[in-house]
Specification:
- With 231 residues, the protein is an alpha+beta fold.
- It has one domain: Peptide deformylase (Peptide Deformylase), CATH 3.90.45.10.
- The protein is built from eight helices and seven strands.
- Strands 4, 5, 6 and 7 form a four-stranded antiparallel sheet that branches. A three-stranded antiparallel sheet has the order 1-2-3, sandwiched between helices.
- The longest helix is centred in the N-terminal third of the chain and has 24 residues.
- The structure holds zinc ion (ZN).
- The site of zinc ion has 5 residues, from helix 6.
Length: 231
């Protein structure tokens, strides 16, 4: 019986050789494309209490290539990350790509230091330098719901990112609470959570109460297609 399978095996090998590698050559990997295109405009935000999410939250993220930055998929991911962080059920001041299951160096950050306090998406974001004194303040995280912590941070930072239009590297000096947000979100891109740096972490019942009505509507439920075979 075995020899009859050989033509099929050869055919399958040929199909894999033609189709497999070519799919991976385009911008983003197959799983990343799935997450970007299948997600609702408000994406599922991973939490530390979910095993699979916790691994994603601890992973180091990769940069995006110029080809990826020019792609429609990047535009779709950026707009979905913005919609997610600004949604009433999340209501954050920043979000990083690993929180939505994409292990790339991208963060959406609210520029509280600019007029109108706009959200801006920063690809290939890094903190180049820490400036000024260490300050301590409260922080929360969309991936650690119901908790807050007191975290020491630098008062200012010099950041760099890739401008998605010109593809040039841009640097900027940022101070105050916006600099804290940049530090929190770039930590996410290196697999670091604020609880790693916090002096104290405590329960935040007010936040839990705020989220309760959305939780009752299933707003934080993990989509079935995001769940691995272990669930
Ligand atoms: Zn966070």
């Amino acid at each position: 019986m075995k020899h009859r399978l050989i033509p099929f095996i050869l055919l399958l090998s040929l199909l894999a050789a033609c189709g497999g590698p070519r799919r991976l050559q385009g911008p983003f990997e197959v799983w990343e494309r799935t997450v970007i295109t299948m997600s609702d405009s408000v994406m599922y935000v991973g939490v530390v209490t979910d095993f699979q999410d916790s691994l994603e939250l601890r992973a180091a993220c990769r940069d995006l290539s110029d080809e990826e930055l020019r792609s429609d998929l990047y535009g779709m991911l950026a707009s979905k990350m913005l919609a997610t962080v600004r949604s009433p059920q999340q209501g954050g001041v920043g979000i990083a790509a690993p929180q939505v299951g994409i292990l790339r160096r991208i963060a959406a950050i609210q520029r509280l230091d600019r007029e109108g306090e706009p959200f801006v998406v920063y690809p290939n974001l890094r903190v180049l330098e820490h400036l000024g004194d260490t300050v301590r303040g409260p922080e929360g995280c969309l991936s650690i719901p119901g908790r807050r912590g007191i975290v020491p941070r630098s008062e200012g930072v010099i950041i760099s990112w890739t401008d998605p239009q010109t593809l040039q590297t841009v640097t900027e000096e940022v101070h105050g609470f916006t600099a804290i947000i940049f530090q929190h979100e770039t930590d996410h891109l290196d697999g670091i959570l604020y609880t790693d740096r916090a002096d104290t972490v405590f329960a935040n019942p007010a936040w839990e109460a705020e989220r309760a009505p959305y939780a009752a509507q299933g707003a934080y439920d993990k989509p079935r297609w995001r769940r691995g075979p272990e669930y």
